[in-house]
Automatic annotation (TrEMBL):
Belongs to the choline monooxygenase family. It comes from Friedmanniomyces endolithicus. Its EC number is 1.14.15.7. Pfam families: Ring_hydroxyl_A (PF00848). Residues 295-338 are annotated as: Disordered. It comes from the Eukaryota. Pathway: Amine and polyamine biosynthesis; betaine biosynthesis via choline pathway; betaine aldehyde from choline (monooxygenase route): step 1/1. Catalyzes the first step of the osmoprotectant glycine betaine synthesis. This is Choline monooxygenase, chloroplastic. It catalyses: choline + 2 reduced [2Fe-2S]-[ferredoxin] + O2 + 2 H(+) = betaine aldehyde hydrate + 2 oxidized [2Fe-2S]-[ferredoxin] + H2O. Coiled coil: none annotated. Transmembrane segments: none annotated.
Length: 338
């Protein structure tokens, strides 16, 4: 039996400010965010982040446990504005993630099964070498669209395609996270992950990189943040850095072109390849589901407020004092005079 191919989100979802505000409540406030390996957070330092207008600060203090042979630090994540502690989770292999609001479920509820996949890599053995950030003319989903498929890889990333031919590229979708396989015959060659809504992790070529796609108030402007880790340094690291930055710059240029076409109305909506673009279809569907759920919650809350306001107004009228200052309900006066 033939099935209809998945459809993309409409172009308006990449350009509308009200839709982005709805995404903030529906998706961003209810998600977890990958911050990086705990070795990035040196004792006595402060590392700042921002997601969907929520500012947070990560601090680390030396662990005083004499039995801690790995000398892990004690991590604290705070809302920078209110000073409120935020729930965070560190995997057994040293990868730190956080929430930005109490609306998010537990880590394992939001990312079921992820901990087992992350347990295959020790994230503390590659020192933090460099971080960069910059803004671009893209919506956050424009960049995730590109990351979640590799149909563009052969012509956009010729150097990367030599290492990982896109012919074999595949994406396996889990609940709120996806694992990419560059070669089905070599499933352990590299670790490529996507975490809903806007974080990625790549371990390959002797190094590790993370990027976060951070939306701004303008749906057509997004801040890109990259962290790079590697066991090598000096010229060897610079060669690695040059390679991964080439891939990132190629993606960025392509995404800015796509965003421009979306804003000019060149593209409105279309279909996705159910095999080669299943990663795009999955994450877009999750965003759609969460937004629709939030929309229903907003409507229900609005109806509840309207009902409460109407009840309060009726009560005020019924119990208003009469002309002579008595407190007989107005309805009783009307009924008595009938």
């Amino acid at each position: 039996m033939a099935t209809n191919p998945p459809r993309t989100l409409p172009a308006s979802w990449y350009t509308s400010r009200p839709l982005y505000q709805l995404e903030c409540r529906a998706v961003f406030l209810k998600s977890w965010y990958l911050l990086g390996p705990i070795i990035k957070f040196l004792p006595g330092t402060f590392v700042d982040y921002e997601f969907a207008g929520i500012y947070l600060t990560v601090t680390a203090t030396p662990c005083m446990d004499p039995n801690d042979q790995r000398h892990n630090s004690s991590i604290t994540v705070l809302d920078s504005t209110t000073g409120t502690p935020l729930r965070h989770h560190t995997t057994s292999t040293g990868l730190l993630s956080t929430t930005i609001s109490p609306l998010a479920p537990s880590f394992h509820t939001f990312f079921p099964g992820l901990e087992g996949t992350l347990s295959t890599v020790d994230f503390t053995v590659r020192p933090h070498r460099r971080s960069i950030a910059y803004e671009g003319h893209i919506n956050w989903k424009t960049m995730i669209d590109g990351y979640q498929e590799c149909l563009h890889c052969q012509y956009t990333h010729p150097a990367f395609s030599l290492l990982y031919p896109p012919t074999f590229y595949a994406v396996k979708n889990h609940h709120n996270w996806c694992q990419h396989y560059a070669d089905a015959a070599r499933p352990d060659d590299g670790l490529f992950l996507y975490f809903l809504p806007n974080c990625t992790l790549k371990v390959y070529g002797g190094g590790m990189s993370l990027f976060r796609v951070c939306p701004t108030e303008d749906p057509g402007r997004t801040r890109m943040e990259f962290d790079y880790y590697n066991v090598v340094e000096g010229e060897e690291f610079e060669e690695y850095y040059k390679f991964v930055r080439q891939v990132a710059d190629e993606d960025f240029e392509l995404c800015e072109t796509v965003q421009g076409n979306l804003e000019r109305g060149v593209y409105a909506e279309g279909v996705l390849n159910s095999v080669k673009e299943n990663g795009v279809a999955y994450y877009q569907q999750r965003v759609l589901e969460m937004v629709l759920e939030q929309h229903q919650e907003d409507r229900q809350q609005a109806r509840t407020r309207e009902a409460e306001e109407a009840a309060a107004s009726t009560s005020a009228v019924e119990h208003a004092p009469g002309r002579h200052g008595n407190s007989i309900p107005n309805r009783a006066i009307v009924e008595a005079s009938a």
